[in-house]
Write a structure and sequence with these properties.
The protein has about 240 residues and is mainly α. It folds into two domains: about 40 residues; about 180 residues, no CATH class. The protein has nine helices and seven strands; from the N terminus they run E-E-E-H-E-E-H-H-E-E-H-H-H-H-H-H. The chain is flat and about 60 Å long. The model has no long low-confidence stretch (mean pLDDT about 90).
């Protein structure tokens, strides 16, 4: 959406940035009536806090399925509010967003499985411990039963990021090669979603790397764009046998 980010309160005259507060309410007096004092700018990223402390504090108090539900809800709310265009600037596809996306899907599986294996529970708890710091366990530690969660989380994250890239690029003249790369990225996402995310976790990580290179390429880094093209061409997704 395009909004006027720099606001001025009609009641007390206070000026503030919507991009920083995420609110149209005046931070000084609370008045909801304000006027924009700048040009309309693309902005999809709302203010969102991601803190799993309260969920972690309940580890010894509630069963695992309840803990998973709380974690899933916290991640869902964070991901819902997040975007990647801030005041007209394209942000990175960051590790915190990816960790929240993965924890959400892992937690959904954990919450539904009444016969949870120790390895699966440990992976869930590792994610819960570090996701709000933008950290995930390495792919080698991912139980086979949870690899679909990592795959679909990566695909969904790239889908949302690609959507914001297209929003950001709407007023820019993309080259044919850039448009083709964005199209190929979307095709990869579609394939992974058709497989319900059931791909090797290393492939999911390569998809993220290709997406980040593509974004840097669209910002003007020619070497990154070439890397993105190579990565996208090399990616091939097949489901498990």
């Amino acid at each position: 959406m395009k909004i006027r980010g720099e606001r001025e309160c009609t009641e007390c005259g206070t000026r503030w940035s919507y991009y920083e507060t995420g609110s149209v309410g005046c931070p000084a007096c609370g008045n909801l009536r304000s006027v924009g004092i700048d040009d309309r700018t693309e902005h999809t990223d709302l203010q969102a806090e991601f803190d799993l402390t309260s969920v972690r504090n309940a580890i010894d108090e509630v069963p695992t399925d309840d803990l998973a539900q709380r974690a899933s809800e916290a991640c869902r709310e964070y991901v819902r509010r997040r975007g990647f265009v801030n005041a007209g600037t394209l942000r990175e596809l960051d590790d915190t967003y990816l960790a929240a996306s993965e924890l959400r899907h892992v937690a959904d599986i954990v919450g539904r499985d009444s016969r949870l294996e120790e390895r699966e529970e440990l992976y869930f708890l590792s994610l819960l411990r570090d996701a709000d710091d933008g950290e995930r366990p390495p792919a080698a530690e991912l139980p086979p039963s949870l690899r679909g969660a990592r795959g679909i989380a990566s695909a969904n994250a790239v889908r949302e990021y690609r959507r914001d890239v297209r929003t950001w690029a709407a007023d820019r003249e993309l080259t044919a090669a850039e448009r083709a790369a964005l199209e190929t990225l979307g095709e990869h996402v579609t394939r992974i979603r058709m497989l319900d995310g059931d791909i090797e976790p290393q492939l999911a990580d390569r998809l993220i790397a290709a997406t980040r290179d593509l974004a840097n390429g669209l910002r003007g880094d020619e070497l990154a764009f070439t890397r993105a093209q190579d990565r996208l061409e090399e990616l091939e997704f097949t489901g498990s046998e």
